[in-house]
Design brief:
The protein has 6 helices and no strands. By secondary structure, the chain is mainly alpha-helical. It folds into 2 domains: 60 residues; 77 residues, lambda repressor-like DNA-binding domains (434 Repressor (Amino-terminal Domain), Orthogonal Bundle). Helix 3 packs across helix 4. The longest helix has 55 residues. The chain starts with a helix and ends with a helix.
Amino acid sequence: MPNIASVLKAEIVRLARKEVRSEVDSIRKALAAARAESAALKRRVSELERSVRQSARAAPARPPSPPAVEEADGADKFRFRASGMASNRKRLGLSAADFGLLVGASGQSVYAWEQGKARPRGKNLAAIAALRGVGKREVVERLAALKSGEQS
């Protein structure tokens, strides 16, 4: 007569193997699907790289870009970003009209520059660049001097 403990142990081992086998089978299927998908993606990437190389060979060489037109004022030395100018104006706490007065333009021009609808010309661009490193106190002094000069 077999020992009940050994029979119970054998049954537990059998059931555990059965459970593990079902879990491993599902993982194997998922792994096989992932490998197949990975292989398909690798093939797709190599096809795309090949087509890019072919189109690069077939595309005609681009003609050289025309040289940039330089303004007489030397405005090509200054970079201009509408958002940068707007943030500088807000940092200084100026209205568009006051900022325009400092750079020699109207408030409407300042709004157009900030919206990207227009681009400042050479002398205005140089004045905008000059205001980049200036503090609030100095701006207030310059503005007061300009306003007092207008009223006299």
